[in-house]
Specification:
Helix 6 packs antiparallel against helix 7 and helix 8 runs parallel beside helix 11. This protein is mainly α. The chain has eleven helices and five strands; from the N terminus they run H-E-E-H-H-E-E-E-H-H-H-H-H-H-H-H. The radius of gyration is 20 Å and the shape is globular. The model is unreliable at about 155-160 and about 160-175 (pLDDT under 50). The protein has helices at about 1-20, 35-55, 60-75, 110, 120-135, 135-155, 165-175, 180-195, 205-220, 225, 235-250; strands spanning about 20-25, 30, 85-90, 95-100, 105-110.
Amino acid sequence: MISRWAAVLAVVVAAVINTACTTVEATGERYLPLIGEQEEIRLGRESDRQIQRTLGLYPEESLQEYVDALGRRIAATTERPDLPWTFRVLDDPVVNAFALPGGYIYVTRGILTHFENEAQLAGVLGHEIGHVTAKHSVIRIGRLQLARLGFGVVSIAAPELERFLPLAGLGLELLFLSYSRENERQSDLLGVRYVTNVGEDPGELIEVMEMLDNVSRGAGAMPAWLSTHPTPANRKQLIAEQIAALEADKR
């Protein structure tokens, strides 16, 4: 019974996607635009308020201004320069960086203590900017909404399945929580492109991966950044290849 309704849902979803898809400019990926840009910005703004209340901002205003200015300089060269880009330093000792929909980017004071130069900060900001320009969160939220709608349709058509919905919903939350390997690959590639646009050395992003790897080994536990990102060692080769490709294009 479950498989039959799943098959019906798959057909309906495929039909909707094929007729209403649009393209992400940064990646060329096709997706169903269930979340508009203004809604995306609203979601990011609301989450930003919660993050500031929970973690707090690092109190040194000059550092906040420096990180924000560097981030905005990079974001201005992307496919989405008109977003209300905001870059914040959180007063958190953990090694972490992340992005919210609508152009809200965060680095912690914990990760800043490990950077040796501006290019390394730029590399991390470029990577997180890539998540926003590639609309990774927007696409994930849209897919989650579509999946929830599908389960709602199933519960109406087959009430005997309604008891499975709470468990299914929890599974979906977990499924869509983390970025996929493809998302991270795209953000790495976009980050290299963006930092190159502003004259920063993209090779320093490889050094950041080395640093994160060393921090995780030395601390005996993975930094928070690694709980939402793939292992650095697996990404260095990809970044090096992207840098080589960009340099070849310049010749």
